[in-house]
TrEMBL record:
Pfam families: NAD_binding_9. It comes from the Bacteria. Residues 8-153 form the FAD-dependent urate hydroxylase HpyO/Asp monooxygenase CreE-like FAD/NAD(P)-binding domain. It comes from Spirulina subsalsa FACHB-351. This is Lysine N(6)-hydroxylase/L-ornithine N(5)-oxygenase family protein.
Length: 395
């Protein structure tokens, strides 16, 4: 790619797709001015892989949350595909959402916009072209661009201290599990975590012939959504945006999300297999140590009890810490920003300092609130970023 780009979007997930469609709605002729960089070379590869690997049947988000600018586009798309919404709030099935996103990609002519490159570093050009950036990848020449939008997820799993340096095929993070490929019949599986991912892993493993113990340091929380719907509008966000102390904002985000939770439907499924003797729920329990015992793991809990299992999966989330993210660390080198509990303090247009680098997703939570990482957060980020891209004077 010899010609400099105007806009480079790094990440071809749902947020990157949301930004591309919202930008092209405002500036249809800008398609040639932007490219999207993702190691897979295709849209939504990681998203789709994770849904398939955990055998997740439907989304947690309602039908109005998706990458198209028209909030009703998914409902219109589903009119010829009945039976793909789950109550309440018409949550779309995995298949419907995938088909819809493919239709969105085609309608906005974005199939050929994704470049198969993993961007590892961003460097500002010096001299007369100081307003431009070089994007570096392991393969290929550096790419020069005027503006960058980071549509990234977290890259580092959150490991409990007792699991560090013990990871392998039979001790892994939830992101590494692919239920479709594992011979689980007759095995004992322990899952640590209390969120929806832990629930999907438990149900999926039991469906494949395993018995499961689910360990959670707190009691299981049952909520339909990650956060209260009031965080999608001014009811809760007004107070959040009026708060000028970043540490207080971070704490408001933690309180709103309050750790992992299960949907009512998932809790019903877990209670069902629990009654069948296929699942043991161990709430208010913490693992304190872990040792190998032949081909199994021996797990020591804080209540004095021990367990043995064939596989141990940690559904303990991921780190939202810019200091630990390979690409964001390079930004800290060229334009250091204050970090609050790992999250960058961006400006009102989600810009990284005084650069022309913008940030979406959970990394923009201090500005957008607790739903920043969700599908709804992608639209909220576009409301901030797109005006600044269209009118550079705003940035």
């Amino acid at each position: 790619m010899t010609q400099p780009l105007d806009i480079a979007i790094i990440g071809a997930g749902p947020h990157g797709l949301t930004l591309a469609t919202h930008l092209l709605k405002k500036r249809p002729k800008w398609r040639s001015r932007l490219k999207i960089f993702d190691p897979s070379g295709q849209w939504l590869t990681v998203w789709q892989q994770q849904f398939n690997a955990l055998d997740i049947p439907y989304l947690r988000s309602p039908a109005v949350h998706h990458p198209d600018p028209n909030p009703y586009a998914l409902r219109h798309f589903a009119e010829t595909r009945p039976g793909h919404f789950y109550p309440p709030y018409d949550r779309p099935s995995r298949e419907l959402f995938h088909q819809f996103c493919q239709a969105v990609i085609q309608r906005w002519q974005l199939q050929e916009q994704v470049i198969p490159q993993k961007i590892q570093a961003i460097e500002p050009l010096k001299g007369r072209k100081a307003s431009r950036f070089e994007l570096h990848s392991p393969s290929g020449e550096p790419v020069i661009t005027r503006r960058v939008v980071l549509a990234l997820g977290p890259s580092v799993p959150q490991w409990p201290s007792w699991a560090e340096n013990k990871q392998g095929e039979r001790l892994c993070n939830a992101q590494q599990v692919d239920l479709r490929t594992l011979p689980l019949r007759g095995e004992q599986v322990v899952i640590v975590g209390g969120g929806l991912t832990a629930g999907h892993l438990a149900v999926g493993a039991i469906a494949r012939g395993a018995t499961v113990t689910l360990i959670h340091r707190r009691g299981m929380q049952v909520k339909l959504f990650d956060t209260d719907p009031s965080w999608l509008g001014p009811k809760s966000l007004k107070t959040f945006w009026e708060e000028r102390d970043w540490e207080t904002r971070w704490q408001m985000i933690q309180n709103a999300r309050n750790g992992g939770s299960l949907t009512p439907d998932m809790m019903t499924q877990l209670r069902r297999v629990q009654k069948q003797g296929l699942l043991q729920l161990r709430e208010h329990c913490q693992v304190v140590d872990l040792r190998r015992s032949g081909q199994q793991w021996q797990i020591f809990c804080d209540d004095g009890q021990t367990l043995k299992c064939d596989r141990l999966w940690c559904a303990t989330g991921t780190q939202w810490d810019a200091a630990q993210h390979p690409l964001l660390k390079t930004l800290q080198d060229i334009a250091p920003l204050p970090l609050v509990q790992g999250l960058p303090v961006l400006d009102d247009h989600l810009r990284w300092g005084k650069t022309n680098i913008f940030v979406m997703g959970g990394w923009a939570a201090l500005q957008l609130g607790p739903v920043a990482r969700n599908l709804a957060g992608g639209r909220m980020a576009c409301d901030r970023i797109v005006p600044a891209l269209i009118k550079p004077s705003l940035a």
